[in-house]
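Assess this one:

_____
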Amino acid sequence: MDEKKTIFSGVQPSGNITLGNYLGAIKNWVNLQEEYRCIYAMMDLHAITVRQNPQELRKRTLDLLKIYIACGIDPEKSLLFIQSQVPHHAQLAWVLNCYTYMGELSRMTQFKDKSSKHADNINAGLFTYPVLMASDILLYQADLVPVGKDQMQHIEITRDIAERFNGVYCQEGNPVFKIPEGFMPKAGAKVMSLTEPTKKMSKSDENPKAYISLLDDLSVIEKKIKSAVTDSEGVIEYRPDDDAKAGINNLLTIMSAVTGKDIDKIVAEYQGKGYGDFKKDVAEAVVEEIRPIRARYDELSNDKQYLVDICEKGAIEASKIAGRTLSKVYKKVGFVQ
């Protein structure tokens, strides 16, 4: 019997995958493969809460798969699949919609944020997005879900929905859903915008100078870091609670994440040096981190059949796992099977 705990996570193919996505999530996923049973999806169902160009969405979904593998996620060790190729996600989401309260959904900060950004398209999917996310997690009986602090609200509502369903149908024990926990790997780095360093780096930012895409030319990455917003103080110090130092704090965080050095050690190394020297070295370190990823990505781009095979195999395996959970749910609610 496999005693490894199950981890589930995924990224939406709704924009450019950034250095923030890589350092905050994907890089950590690679390290989890040896210790956990890892399931990582390309979350294309979630992406359409905002209008997408169909051709671009298809391309970005496969680009994301290539990025996962290029970053070190091994399809032989981790289960990789495209969310829309496993219909159980949408099927369970409908059932769980009927066990989720309007008040719970209206309190979700992501709904408020996206509604303000897309006022012309405040659709029902945007409102019920957390239920689909709960379904993603609960279908695979995940023990742990790697998240940042800003995503813990989604884990909380997932737990609430699962406990409510179990409470209604499983008083005799043998709960249908395992109650997942949020998991914040210690190595995770919260990377901020290069132009507004008090805001998180976002792949949907309209300003391309604000984020570093893993698919940017290496020379462009270098230029973006060298032009990153800092401050007029000219002192390389890490003061996480001081918004005036947000730019330098961000660059120190990035440098620490790509080199593995403690921030205090980096600060000591640059004592008495200027921002220009520091930015140059950060740029060089980031470029060297991304260079092998880009090389592997380009290799994968020339092997479309390999990608198709991974998608097909992943969808079959994911459907087997998800199907077992959905069958239990359908039986509990009284559907004829």
In short: The first helix runs from residue 19 to 32. DSSP finds 13 helices and five strands in the chain. The radius of gyration is 21 Å. Residues 6-189+304-333 form a domain with the Rossmann fold fold (CATH 3.40.50.620).
